[in-house]
Design brief:
With about 350 residues, the chain is an alpha+beta fold. The chain contains 12 helices and 9 strands. A hairpin with a 2-residue loop joins strand 6 and strand 7. Bound molecules: zinc ion (ZN). The site of zinc ion (ZN) has 7 residues, from loops.
């Protein structure tokens, strides 16, 4: 038994050395045949079991089986090692892994989408909810409920796409203000982004389909200073810390008082002139301000229409054109660029 064990040990050692020396698959196969094959060295050792006493045979058989299993594992590892080495060699000769790859152009968020997302994120941080509504709405939500009755001349200002006598593509996102106020009691704090439609002739400053971001805050004790504070914050979020906001008196049927909102021209920083064009900044026409949209205190008639008591509640609303914000933010000369999916233009702004 001891003799068999030492013979087995000797076979295993020579087997290991032979595997180490084998440097291709053919050599490994020869080693396998010589040691583990039908007439290999292990078989010779196994035959010696017959010379042992009966009670020693099971232990000897186990010893040999264990040795065979270890040798097979060793052989398998050697095969895998060879395979990986030959793959590396092939890679080194046939593929230049340092060769620069072909870059697929990556998409980016559209500037209009980005302004909407950043504006909404600003208001959400201040506790506002984002509401999204339908693009086709009855005239009640677009006009009547906003203090623009059927014969009101202000309807002319919203040159709209009518679907039927009472249905139209919304010319502003204000229907969402009415719908939200009808469904909830104050306090209300919402921001409503979305597509709007007006029958405007398309030129460098106008589109018939554009985006708005509207905001509405209604609660007790809300006043104009809150509006100015929030809009100043929004402009600083979108354009930078140097921004200021200016209100000019205006008229809208749904707000009283009403204001046009301007912000510091981001190009000339409010100076009105540029070193490159001393005649005047071409973005703001030399005024140092650019127009963003309308705002004001919600008209008491609008509050009454949704069942709020105007003596108890007050609120403000604003509506900005997103593409207009984009013109100023990205110093774009033509609003139509935002609708032409020109990858070069979009990549510049990404
Ligand atoms: Zn300017």
């Amino acid at each position: 038994m001891t003799e068999l064990a030492s013979r087995l040990d000797d076979v295993a050692q020579r087997f290991d050395a032979a595997v180490d020396r084998a440097n291709d698959e053919q050599a490994l196969e020869s080693v396998r045949v010589a040691y583990l094959g039908r007439n290999g060295e292990v078989t010779t050792v196994r035959r010696a079991i017959g010379t042992l006493a009966h009670n020693e045979r099971p232990a000897a058989g186990k010893l040999i089986n264990d040795a065979v299993a270890a040798m097979e594992r060793r052989l398998q590892a050697a095969y895998e090692e060879l395979e990986s080495r030959s793959f590396d060699a092939e890679l080194a000769t046939s593929i230049d892994v340092t060769f620069p790859s072909i870059r697929r152009p990556a998409g980016s968020i559209h500037p209009v989408r980005r302004i909407i997302e950043e504006s909404c994120a600003y208001f959400v941080r201040h506790g506002f909810a984002v509401v999204i509504g339908a693009e086709v709405e009855p005239d009640y939500y677009n006009f009547d409920a906003l203090n623009i009755p059927n014969d009101h001349p202000a309807r002319e200002g919203f040159d709209s796409f009518w679907i039927s006598d009472t249905l139209l593509l919304r010319p502003h996102t204000s229907p969402m203000q009415i719908r939200t106020m009808q469904e909830h009691r104050p306090p209300i704090a919402i921001v409503a982004p979305g597509k709007c439609f007006r029958r405007d002739a398309v030129d460098a400053r106008h589109l018939f389909q554009f985006h708005q971001v509207e905001g509405l805050l209604v609660a007790e004790g809300i006043h104009f200073a809150h509006l100015k504070g929030m809009l100043t914050g929004l402009c600083r979020e979108l354009f930078g810390e140097q921004q200021n906001v200016r209100f000019r008196p205006s008229y809208f049927p749904f707000t009283e008082p009403s204001a046009e909102v301007d912000t510091t021209c981001p190009k000339c920083k409010g100076a009105g002139t540029l070193k490159s064009s001393p005649m005047g900044c071409n973005m703001c026409g030399g005024s140092g301000w650019i127009e963003l949209g309308g705002a004001g205190m919600v008209h008491p008639n609008v509050l009454r229409e949704v069942g709020y008591d105007p003596d108890r509640y007050s609120g403000w609303a604003f509506g900005f054109g997103v593409e207009r914000l984009g013109l100023a933010r990205y110093e774009v000369d033509d609003i139509r660029r935002f609708t032409k999916s020109d990858p070069g233009f979009l990549a510049q702004l990404s």
